[in-house]
Structures are given as C-alpha cells and as structure tokens.
Here is the input.
Amino acid sequence: MDTARYVERVYQELHAHPELSLEEAWTASFVAEELREMGFSVSTQVGGHGVVGLMEFSSPGPALGLRADMDALPMTEETAVSFSSQNPGVMHACGHDSHMAMVLAACRFASENRERLRGRLLAVFQPAEEMGDGARSMLKAGVFARVMPDRFVGVHNWPSLPAGSVGLQAGPLTANTDHFHAVFHGLGGHGALPHRAKDAIAMATAGVQNVFALTQRCTNASYPQVVSFGLIQGGTTVNIIPERVTVAGTVRTMRLEDQEQIIRLLHQAFRAAAELYGGSYELDYVRGVPGVVNDAQVVEELVCFFAAKLPDVRVVTEGLASLVGEDVGYFLQEVPGVLLFVGSGQEGAVNELHNPRFLVPTKALVTGSRALAGIIEGYLSKKEDSPIKLHS
Here is the structure.
C-alpha cells in the first residue's frame, strides 16, 4: 500500500472513532497495534492512554522524537462523509486524527527503510491535549525514561495555510493559555433602593470595562496578547440587587513579562471597580499551558531538510504565531524541537478548527507524511555526508 492510500485509510479509521480526553482507549489500542506491526517496541498507559513506540536501528546515532495528539472534541459532526464519527456527540474537529495518521505513516517509512537509518526513533502519541494536561502527564510518567530525544517534532494541521504547504517559524508560536475567575462582593438590596445596596453587578460591569481599557492602553501592542471574558453570573430576578457576581475569562500572552503585567492589570481593574461601589473582590488566576517556542537551530535544520528532500513543498517561515494553546510546549521545554504546521486549507471548504464541518484533505495528509519522513531521513540517515551531526 502506498503512502497516500495508507495515510488516508488510517485517517478515516481514526476519524470514525473519536474519543474525548482521558477516554482514548480504542484510539490507543489502534495506534499501538499499528506500531507493533511495523516492528516498534510499544509502551502503553503512559500518563493516561499515552502510547510510546521505539524503533532502534542497527547503527548508533541520534534519537528523534515525533509527537501526535489523540483526543477529540465534544461536538456533533456535520460533514456527512462516509467515515463520519460513529460516536454521537464526539468529533475529531481539530484534526488530531490527521496528526496520528501522519506520524504513523512516517513510522511506516522508517520501518520500511530501517537498513538505511541509524539511531533511534521515538513515536509519542499523547492523550488529553484538549485539556492541556496530556503532555505534562506523559512527562511525569517518564515518557523519556528509556530514550531522551536529541530533537523533538510535534505536528499540527493548520487550515490558515493551503494544503500542500508547511509552516515552520522560529521563536514563540503559540500562547501561554491562562484563565481567571473573579468574584465581586457587595451588599444586596431592593432594585428600587440601590442607594442602600452595594451593587455587585455595577462592580462587575465596571471591572470588565476597566480591564478592556487598561489592557488596550497599558500593554505593548507590538506583542500579541488578549483578555477575553466568557462568563458573567449573578442575580436571581429583576428587582433584587445581588450581593455576589462572578466573572471569568481567558488570557493569552506570548511573553512571560506580558503575562505578569496582565495579572497586575486585572487586580488594578477589579480593585478600582469594587472600591468605586463600596465592595470587594477576589481574583483566582490560573497559569495554564505554556506557549510553544520553536528552537531556532532546529527550524534551520528542518528548513534545510525540506529544501533538499521536498523542493516542491512551499515552506512558510513567518506570520504563523497564534494565540491558541498547544501543550506540546511542555515537551519543548525538555528537548530542542519544534511544532510543525501542515497546511490543511482548501478552497470551498470549511477552514476552521473546532468546526463541525471541518475535515483534513488527503493532500495535507500526504504532505505531512512526506515532511515527517524527510525529517527522519535528515536526522537518522546513515549517509556520511548527513548535514546534521547530533550526539547519540
């Protein structure tokens, strides 16, 4: 079976059987069986339903790690394709099925060409990316206990890029994804007598507006960052001023200094709003998934591989930074590596992640598989003139 047929078959099989975070049992079993058939030694239940495949080649050399995420989203699919989700209310709407298919196809390439390769290949299939905890759980479980990779490459389809292209940018790529929960405390009362109350709704309203004003005027617009509110809760009926109102939202920053400044501004905004109406506030700020920072040297290495081995593939190297979250950043804090974007946009289709009509086209699957195979060959080829020399 050629690469295109293999990667499409695997993609469709995985797409039809999506599983939510922490529930990826069938997916893990499918991936593990594919790896075993290729000759990988396989570890399962690594940090949950995580799967790790290891292939050791006959000659010593560097270790390369590849990573795909496995979990799906709680959404009802609306694509009407023949391989639509068979699990009601669950869908691979972020393309994690395509990531697994690409990495498995690259592993198949390594298996079929093992006599030409050296070193070791580690295939990491991670659960619970959508929860932001799967990578950290795998690290705590010792995902690198047997082999510490010299280089690590995660892959993610990217509909902002056309199918047939890849994206690879040095430096910050995704955001620190934090969230906060604030409570305003006042004094309840009758809606007709607001002067006798301490209006928590007024505090919350002012607090939200203060945050928008301060983050617009006091942060450096040269660096991407955003604060968004997603929840406001308070009150029981139209003529009762509530004593307590809750607001909550998300903060996305690319730099740690911006993260610290946003925390200070939230306190400043909420404190001023509470004091204005005679009340108080509490702020619970939770630092979430760290931003992905692509290693500049690894980016340079991969760009060289692609130029030599995939000259027909367009490589985009700028304008890729986004405020989405991706927990592969935990791995990249431990090992020099990158998150590689594989273009999945197609004309006339829905090109939005987390959309019930989103699908990854075959052209993207093939391009991603070829790119990962080129990375394997670039780092692990036995050729004496291999352009990259890494410690084994």
Summary: Confidence is low (pLDDT under 50) at residues 385-392. The chain is about 35% helix and 25% strand. The chain has two domains: 3-173+291-380, 176-289.
